[in-house]
Design a protein that fits this description.
Pnp Oxidase, Chain A, 7-stranded antiparallel beta sheet, 3-stranded antiparallel beta sheet, globular
Length: 169
Amino acid sequence: MQTQAPLIDAMAMKYPEQIVIGIARAAHGVCNPITLGWTMITSGHPAMMAVSIGLTRYSRGVFASVDEFVIAMPSEHQRDETMLFGTRSGRDVDKLAESGAAVQPAVEVDGVLLADAVANFECRKVAELTTGDHVIFVGQIVCSHRHPDRPNRLYTVGNGYQMAGLGRA
């Protein structure tokens, strides 16, 4: 039986939750990563993914100004990078340089892949939709990559940015 609860209490039941790192190149040429919890596959044919970014975030403006981006699924080895990407602003710092994250060039879009991620998806933006205090960016996947060693994927388990590797499929 369900019992009525405050929204914040009911929403806490979503954990563990997947996270991704969205990466887009800012106008000044620096690739800007942001850790995001609100993400989904939106279509199988053609393959599309979406991320939702808060209106007040610097990264929202970067994603709005470009036609392509990368979505990376971080591995358990990227806990510190994932935390930094989600707590620092690209307005103030080059997050990739500060983190020392291993990157490699994207193949089909103007961007970078996170070399230690479980998977990376190069996307061409096909839509954006403002939904209250966030903007959803939808991209068609034009190239995909996976780590050959299949490391565990990183998830958030709530309580801020506490992270946990939950195994692989």
